[in-house]
Amino acid sequence: MGDARKKPNPASSSSGETLIEGRRPLRCIVKLGGAAITRKNELESINEESLGSVCAQLREAMASSSIGSASPPPRGISMDWSRRSGDRILPVSVDDFGEHSAVDFDNNFVIVHGAGSFGHFQASTSGVHKGGLHLPLVKAGFVATRISVTSLNLEIVRALAREGIPSVGMSPFACGWSTQKRNVASADAAQIIHSLSAGFVPVLHGDAVLDHLQGCTILSGDVIIRHLAQLLMPKYVVFLTDVLGVYDRPPSDPNAILLREIVVDEDGSWSVLKPTLEQLKKEVEITVAAHDTTGGMETKISEAAVIARLGIDVYITKAGTEHSLIALKGQVDNDTEDWLGTVIRSSKHAPLSA
Predict the structure, then answer these.
(1) Is 221 among the annotated ligand-binding positions?
(2) Where is the Aspartate/glutamate/uridylate kinase domain (predicted)?
């Protein structure tokens, strides 16, 4: 599929474009959905169990191609040497790292996470997504939103580091990302590319950024992923959510049906390939939480469709499950019904037997 993919054509110029030549292809971009790693109904509350499971699966996925074994790799030595309130400081031995040097992670991943219960309250209360930095409430909300989302980013980086994954947090605002009419206008990827080349795993997040026309807005993680996919052309993209994938109606509806495969045409239109049920001829219902300033599932599908048009398969599935591990490893089999999730791909690359 690599030869059939379009040449990267990022939405805006970036000094990172000149750095792509000669570097090995990016394996995967992962989106950690805010609803999957936080408790969205509890202000600034991390779902520690889910986040821990996701980080362990990322470690296993990164090690799978280099170790060549079906068994999980040994847990890496923690790279989080900082101390939480009340924690004991654990001694760090340099000898420990020599013993684990044989575990050669294929850490050519980029991770982007949503905000979940972090940032959305601050942004929606102050109207940051609507702009208006001249207003005191909006300016204060911009600051409050960034405090919240960067604190979550730090905790996710720490969780990855405790698994031995050499992760580094990167905020779009601090990296110079900006928008115009809420579309990406400037996105310097040089720091991301340099970090990948140095063996680090960049961890970005949805952020409050400056907008050239309305002053400021919210740049969602889904939009960030689309832009990075256009620039870096990963082998595949994975969205980890709190449900198994895309449904024909809200997943809370007992009659909701999981859409197993969606194909995207060149004109951007998309249709459901699996399941081929009569009731799916109606429009798919999309709901967005009232406090969600990033567009929710509707944005996720539209951005995934743009990525799929590039010839890059997109997998959407539930975080912390056997299905998410398969997706992270890039081992989704089109011919099996055992994997539960949604595949979004270009109609040019859809299986002929479908």
Answers:
(1) yes
(2) 105-317
Tell me whether residue 115 is annotated as binding.
yes
Q: What is the pLDDT along the chain (354 residues), one digit of tens a residue?
A: 444 454 444 444 444 555 566 567 899 999 999 999 999 889 999 999 999 999 999 999 998 765 444 555 566 778 888 877 766 666 666 676 665 554 457 789 999 999 999 999 999 999 999 999 999 999 999 999 999 999 999 999 999 999 999 999 999 999 999 999 878 999 989 999 999 999 999 999 999 999 999 999 999 998 999 999 999 999 999 999 999 998 888 888 888 889 999 998 888 788 888 887 555 545 555 443 444 444 456 667 788 899 999 999 999 999 999 999 999 999 998 667 889 999 999 988 765 444
Whether 300 has a binding-site annotation, put simply, is yes
Q: Is 120 marked within a binding site?
A: yes
Contacts 24+ apart (CB under 8 A), 347-351: 347/263, 347/264, 347/265, 347/266, 348/4, 348/266, 348/311, 349/1, 349/4, 349/311, 349/313, 350/261, 350/263, 350/273
